[in-house]
Design goal:
- The structure holds 2 protein chains of 2 kinds.
- By secondary structure, chain A is mainly α.
- Chain A is built from 11 helices and 2 strands.
- In chain A, strands 1-2 form a two-stranded antiparallel sheet.
- In chain A, helix 3 packs across helix 9, helix 3 crosses helix 10 and helix 9 runs antiparallel to helix 11.
- Chain A is elongated.
- In chain B, the strands form 2 sheets. A 7-stranded mixed sheet of chain B has the order 1-11-10-4-9-8-7, sandwiched between helices. Chain B has a 4-stranded antiparallel sheet with strand order 3-2-5-6, with helices on one face.
- In chain B, about 40% of the residues are buried.
- Chain B is about 35% helix and about 20% strand.
- By secondary structure, chain B is of the alpha/beta class.
- Chain B starts with a helix and ends in a 21-residue tail after the last helix.
- Classes of the chains: A mainly alpha, B alpha/beta.
- The interface between A and B is medium-sized, with 20 and 28 residues.
Chain lengths: ~270, ~325
Amino acid sequence: MLILALWETAYRVIGWKPWLFPAPSHVLDALLGLMNIHTGFGEPISAHWPRVILEPGQHVRLLSPWWGSPLMKAILVSGVRLLEGFAISVALGAILGLLMWRFIELDRFLGPLLLGLQTLPSVCWVPLAILTLGINEWGILFVLIMGSFSAIALVLRDGLRNIPPLYPRAGMMMGARGWRLYYYVLLPASLPALASSLRTGFSFAWRSLMGAELIFVVDKWRGLGFLLEAGREFSDVAQVVAVMIVMVVIGMLADRWLFAIVQRRVQTRFGLAT
Amino acid sequence: MRANLVSIKAIEPTPSEDDALPQLHADQRIANASGDGSSGRGRLVLKNVSKNFPGSTVHALRDVDLVCDPGEFVVVVGPSGCGKSTLLNMAAGMIKPDNGTVSLDNQPIRAPGPERAMVFQDHGLFPWLTAAQNIEFGLKMAGVPRSDRAARVDAALKLVHLAPKRDLLIHELSGGMRQRVAIARALVMEPAVLLMDEPFAALDAQTRTLLHEQLQELWVRTRKTILFVTHSVGEAVRLADRIIVLHAHPGRIRREIKVDLAHPRNFDSADITQLVRTVRKEIEDEVNRVNAEMAETYWKPQAPGDLGADPGVMGDGI
């Protein structure tokens, strides 16, 4: 709040150019505008500001319901893409992580490769995806999966390696064999590893998706990245900042409210949490 | 009289030593293990067993013969690295011997199984299950119907005096309670043999004493064959019918000491003290022997004469 207040004050006192960097009030206007709620908190940026003319004495004007607004549609589109891509990515990463844990030779071969892939920024997959798969949904999903599956595989592998060998030994002693050993002992024992790999994987997936959407413009489905890019095209700095904030907030909410809580619960169960 | 209470036999494996049974105090006399044989189950035989781990020049175990009779409490002691854990893991079926055979009631042992339940030093309980669920696990794997399981788990919990803690998670239990759950988890499967790998080594002294008492009580009640590995002489003397002192590098049986004192034992009695002294002496000799051997091959303290060398030439030859 303090930072926002200082930011706004600085803007009003110094009077820097609003088309280079917006004030919080502009960002708020843009954010609400994307949700079909038109307000005029900020100083006029240009002749077209606010984009919807408010009548004298009117502060808020609703054009259409907020749930049909561009922002909500974009969040929905991005969310669906994320779920699809993340699910594939988790499946792929989990299988690879499991195999790499089980077969050390495979790990010697794949481990460094995956580590290399992980260091490659996911946006670097975009050109390849465009040329190979074309500008469509598959291209976006491809970038998302390539950006996150290696992290999931590596974190899962490391977590599985940290399962105390005493657990499978105790399981065998009690007569758990074959698939039962996997299902009743190794699977639950790997839950902490699984939780942290999902958490890491999610943040990788989210970042990759935003990067991919920025460049891929699939006309029918406009995600958050598209809104960001659209803001740039219309030189609407306020919208750019507003969409960035939305991205950060969604990523944070998913991490804090979903994955952190799952991880916390697993760790509490295992007595690992402090 | 006192000397008679403890009969100590030399290493040579002579199975027929019943004639050497000493006189016991009448009030201390409790059915001897070998005489009980309530089930006749649980005869663990290691015959001529050798094990050499890859990359090691000395045998972890060489030509070890050990027979645990049904209902007998055998404790294996020895300096670290003498192969006690290897011995136990072989009985459990976790390690295969290079030579020789390990069998239980004439069945050769090939893999770990519930008839040879093991209690680990670090309990090895599953943290994602409650105490009761941990105990239930073996029954579930054995395909015992759900309705029978509950009763048996309750009985096992009562046996180790943990009935009120049944729904706690493992990390919510104290170290001593965890070991008791581990013991209950082993006993509930009604194993023929109970294998215990330094189960009380990580506990504080008071808890350990308490658990010794409880283990003796349990053993007197259930009469399981127990093969118990420890490095604590006090523990060995307190619990054992027979103490096996191992010899390190290569691992073999150095000496067998039969303890014919009644259970439960009073730790302050003079007989125990004397026996502790004997066993400790045996182990000290073994440790000294091992150290002397190591010193010859690896390291010798430098002659003190070096310390008086002329400081002016310090660093020569670096």
